[in-house]
Amino acid sequence: MTLSDASVLVRLDRDGPDSPGSLAALEGIPPQAMSTTLAAPEQRGLVSRAVDPSEGRRAVDDNQAGRPARWWPIGDQ
């Protein structure tokens, strides 16, 4: 897990679902970079992407399985 992965997981756990664009702005990275950042945690089942039915825009949320992720060591794992 990278530092960027952990940062996004902690942010989602603390603040709840958010859009990839908003997460990118909060992390100070381009939206395209956030897509890359979200790919690994999504493949591991730590986050999921869906369309927010109330707003019709994409949203990202941490999955229950992702909650312990904030305690995982940072680095390649």
Walk me through this protein's architecture:
- The chain has 77 residues and is of the alpha+beta class.
- It contains three helices and two strands.
- Strands 1-2 form a two-stranded antiparallel sheet.
- Strand 1 and strand 2 form a beta hairpin.
- Helix 1 packs across helix 3 and helix 2 packs across helix 3.
- The longest helix is centred in the first third of the chain and has 13 residues.
- It is globular, with a radius of gyration of 12 Å.
Instruction: List the quaternary state of the chains.
Output: single chain
Give me the secondary-structure category.
alpha+beta
Mean pLDDT: 77
Strand order of the main beta sheet, please?
Answer: 1-2
Report the count of strand segments. Answer: 2
Query: What does the radius of gyration come to?
Result: 12 Å
Contiguous runs where pLDDT drops below 50 for at least 5 residues: 65-77
Give the N-terminus to C-terminus distance in angstroms: 6 Å
Could you state the order of secondary-structure elements as H and E?
HHHEE
Helix content: 40-55%
SS summary, helix count:
3
Using the alpha-carbon principal axes, give the shape.
Answer: globular
Largest sheet: 2 strands, antiparallel
- Beta-strand residue percentage: 5-15%
